[in-house]
């Protein structure tokens, strides 16, 4: 979405970032007293680079995720992925999935639809910042520095009704009313020199980088 910006613009916008304080996990204003969900991935560790297979420079698939330590009263889960460092007033939304069943405990690789990939059947996928019900692969501007992609999961109580393709505002309002617990996992991505190469770290599990 931003990879085609000239490198000189990326450098010029280096100081312009939405900020971690604006991701839903922090903007909810409910962290104190909320339970904590353990959100992890076998493909990358917290605050480490995302393997290229999950970005716009690779296959552009959604990464695998696992969660644990849910409150016993959890009825459903919401996944929200935002770019905390996008040069925009608010973080760019890369994925929304609502209605995840607590018993599943995971989301497999490529489960969320993405370009050229139909995704898993039965997922209730919301709108990303490209106005598509899909995974928007990370593609930070060249020269803008490292971007932090916040994978956020929320446990909900009750049964909020979502529209066919809920957006960030709709999800935010539902979370304010129904959120019981939350979890956060951050993956990074960077194009420091204007090339399409992305720094990679070895995966934390059995999946190999693309």
Give a verbal description of the structure:
This protein has one domain: Phosphatidylethanolamine-binding Protein. A hairpin with an 8-residue loop joins strand 5 and strand 6. The protein has 210 residues and is mainly beta. The strands form two sheets. Strands 1, 3, 5, 6, 8, 9 and 10 form a seven-stranded mixed β-sheet that branches. The C terminus is likely disordered. It is globular, with a radius of gyration of 16 Å.
Annotate the secondary structure layout.
Layout (H helix, E strand, L loop, with lengths): L6 H6 L11 H4 L7 E2 L1 E3 L7 E2 L15 E4 L7 E8 L8 E9 L5 E2 L16 E2 L21 E10 L11 H11 E11 L21
Parallel strand pairs: 1-10, 3-10
Antiparallel strand pairs: 2-4, 4-7, 5-6, 5-9, 6-8, 9-10
In brief, what are we looking at here?
With 210 residues, this protein is mainly beta. The protein has helices spanning 7-12, 24-27, 168-178, and strands spanning 35-36, 38-40, 48-49, 65-68, 76-83, 92-100, 106-107, 124-125, 147-156, 179-189.
SSE series: HHEEEEEEEEEHE
Shape descriptor: globular
Would you tell me the overall average pLDDT? 86
Number of strands: 10
Provide the descriptors you would attach to this structure in a database record.
single chain, 210 residues, mainly beta, Phosphatidylethanolamine-binding Protein, seven-stranded mixed sheet, three-stranded antiparallel sheet, 3 helices, globular, disordered C terminus
């Amino acid at each position: 979405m931003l990879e085609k910006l000239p490198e000189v613009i990326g450098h010029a916008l280096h100081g312009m970032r939405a900020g971690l304080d604006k991701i839903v996990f922090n903007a909810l204003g409910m962290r104190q007293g909320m339970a904590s969900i353990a959100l992890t991935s076998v493909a990358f560790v917290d605050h480490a680079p995302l393997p290229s297979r999950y970005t716009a420079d690779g296959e552009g698939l959604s990464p695998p995720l696992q969660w644990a330590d849910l409150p016993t009263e959890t009825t459903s889960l919401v996944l929200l992925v935002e770019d905390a460092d996008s040069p925009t007033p608010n973080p760019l939304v890369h994925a929304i999935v609502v209605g995840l069943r607590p018993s599943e405990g995971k989301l497999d690789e490529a489960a969320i639809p993405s370009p050229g990939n139909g995704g898993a059947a039965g997922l209730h996928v919301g709108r990303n910042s490209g106005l598509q019900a899909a995974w928007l692969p990370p593609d930070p501007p060249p020269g803008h520095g490292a971007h932090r992609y916040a994978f956020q999961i929320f446990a909900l109580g009750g049964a909020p009704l979502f529209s066919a393709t809920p957006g960030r505002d709709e999800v935010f309002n539902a979370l304010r009313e129904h959120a019981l617990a939350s979890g956060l996992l951050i993956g990074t991505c960077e194009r420091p020199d204007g090339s399409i190469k992305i720094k990679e770290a070895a995966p934390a599990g059995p999946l190999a980088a693309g």
